[in-house]
Amino acid sequence: MKRTRIDGGETLRWGLRLASLGACLLAWQWAAGGRVNLGLLTFQNVPPPGEVAQAAWALLHSPLLLGHLKASLGRVFSGFAAAALAGIALGLCIGRWQRWEDLLMPPLEMLRPIPAVAWIPLAILMFPSSEMSMIFITFTGALFPILLNTVHGVEQIDPRLVASARSLGGGSWAVFTEVVLPGAAPSIVTGLSIGMGTAWFCLVTAEMISGQFGIGYYTWASYTIQNYADIVVGMLVIGALGMGSSVLVKRIGQALMPWHLQEKKT
User: Fold this and answer.
1) Smallest Cα–Cα separation from 29: which of 12, 5, 4, 46?
2) Which of 89, 114, 197, 251 has the most CB atoms lying inside 10 A of its own CB?
């Protein structure tokens, strides 16, 4: 009986998710198909789902699709990998040691509110190639969610756990690897998942710099030639890739933290 209730609950959850997507599509069709004009908000130039589906089908059969995907995936994952290494390392140091926090947090907090688009001119000046500039933009987008979640994860560890480990003879390295790192791991994984989504968010900004390939470039180029259906296709592709990669990061993190899943179940 218990298994039946669980299956019923999962069926209801997926039913609600599909219903919400269906409601969004119906609202989109009503607004775009009817060319609704609400004054401050107008859908007169927004393509309906049918036109977007045709544009998506054309892109799917285009020989340029693979080049766009490879370029965007390479830029996003390169920037994300660099941000993960830097964000986790700095976050662990800042959250664990006061001197690191005093030294690094003031400049980082000053840089954090700067939007990705504001980095474009400086990125062009700093890096000799446009490819490195685009990777840097995705790096800046992913860095701060990873960094701040790591700092939060370290700071929320119960000091009594650290004291207990030391009283049992654990040295600094043992305390760090056996207490601090596992304790902060859930927050680190959350930061990685958010950072991956933010990296995709910055992709259009990054690929505005230059280049011939990339989903963000494809979306921006479609806007410049007023191909509205292709704009929506590019947005949906970025959304799908961002959601999928964020879920992948979260699932990998959960697989590496079996103790955390056991705590949630209990």
Assistant:
1) 46
2) 197
Per the CB < 8 A criterion, the answer to whether 205 and 220 are in contact is no
- The segment(s) of the chain belonging to CATH 1.10.3720.10 are 48-265
Q: Give yes or no for a contact between 223 and 207, defined as CB atoms under 8 angstroms apart.
A: no
Give per-residue pLDDT as tens, 198-236.
Answer: 999 888 888 877 667 888 889 888 888 888 899 999 999
Burial of 227 (0-12, 13-18, 19+ CB in 10 A): middle
pLDDT value for 144: 93
pLDDT tens readout for residues 40-53: 888 888 899 999 99
**Helices of type H across 117-227:** 120-126, 130-155, 159-167, 172-175, 181-201, 203-207, 215-224
pTM to 2 decimal places: 0.83
